[in-house]
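User: My advisor, Dr. K., asked me to get a structural model of this assembly before our group meeting. I'm new to this, so sorry if the format is off. These are the inputs:
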Amino acid sequence: MTSVHIFMGKVSESMAHAISSQPATSPARKQDLRAYLIVGLAGILWLAAYNVIQPTAIWLAYGLLGLAQGSHLGESLAFFFYDVPKIILLLGGMIFLITLLRSFFTAEQTRAWLGGKRQGVGNVLAAALGIITPFCSCSAVPLFIGFVESGIPLGITFSFLVSAPVVNEVALVMLFGMFVWKVAGLYLLSGLTIAIIAGMVIGRLKLERYVEDFVWQIKVGKGGILRDRTTSAERFQIAWGSTKEIVGKVSLYVAVGIAIGAGIHGYVPESALAGILGKGAWWSVPAAVILGVPLYSNAAGVIPIVHALMEKGAALGTVLAFMMSVVGLSLPEMVILRRVLKPQLIAIFIGVVAIAIILTGYLFNLVL
Amino acid sequence: MNIRVLGMNCPSCMRMKADVESILAHRGWEAHMEYVSDTAEILRYGVMSTPVLVVDDQVVMVGYRGAAWIEAVLGIIAGKAD
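Assistant: The format is fine. Below is the predicted structure of the whole assembly, which you can bring to the meeting.
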């Protein structure tokens, strides 16, 4: 994720003028108008495409390939031809909107908002901002240092660091596309809750001594934030750029995941998995969390498989716990954070988040 | 001009670095470019997200905004220097 502010703290007046006066001219306004037109047209095309997928998929499987209606192979293929373009279209459209929204937020602005907030309120705000602030785990280290150096309590910083990866936009869109919207909503809410609670617990434990010592010695420069001069046309371009990147990266996983899901859909008998992954099996939630850790960042490939498993009797709480473990407990991020956190704090961090995810899983299995 | 690209080796950081290199080679502007991935050094500029474009020790861009934008910003600064 990238942010789009220019920092003016150190930019000389004349240079600042030269840079910031650029987009405000009338060609920029014309460009904006053109950009709105293009985006509007793309929106109409998107809707049209979304509506022809199902008839096309049915025609492909039963018409062109001549498979019998109701046959295992026909059903699996129709499912595949429908789901792959549907999910990729949904991802394209919604990731575009999400990154567009995110282009209005920056890590530096978030830090300013979190400054001086008490525990509790601060944790809630940090968890919410974790969802909409552009964040790449590669910049977790400067972000962490920037937060704690400006006096934001450790617990609030952790609420942000949990929520940013746990509420994953690809996972959210795919849950929305493959399940009912309520499941996506539950995922969002439980991700937020886990981030708030994990941050509050870590805040209470007073773990500052487990932050690497050099962190407290780093001098963080002051960068003033310039009024955002990004034009709409530029925003669309930035959003389109990240959409292409994200969708391009996950579409292969989506296709493979849906292919496996389609196989399960067509061939595995109903409720075959109720015994292993159903509500009755108490150990399935922690097992799902452990299984999710090495599948880091593969939410795209995992969700279609999980969706098919649910049709065959897996419980929703178990599935959600698995999902959050896949996106939230990522080994590469822990390796990055190890540069600023001592092993004890990494272990506590993983432990608190894992327990919170497991409890959420049990809770949903109990209520739903 | 003295250009520094601050990055944590993420894909967009590498892209900014490559863009600056190719823009400089293409336009022939007099400049020295350096890629910085040292955390303490990055934080000195008061930024928390990467990549960052720094010209003559002044932050001019945070986040990857495309080669055209980088070229425009460098062009303005190169033009001022002449």
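One thing worth pointing out at the meeting: DSSP finds 17 helices and no strands in chain A.

User: Perfect, thanks a lot.
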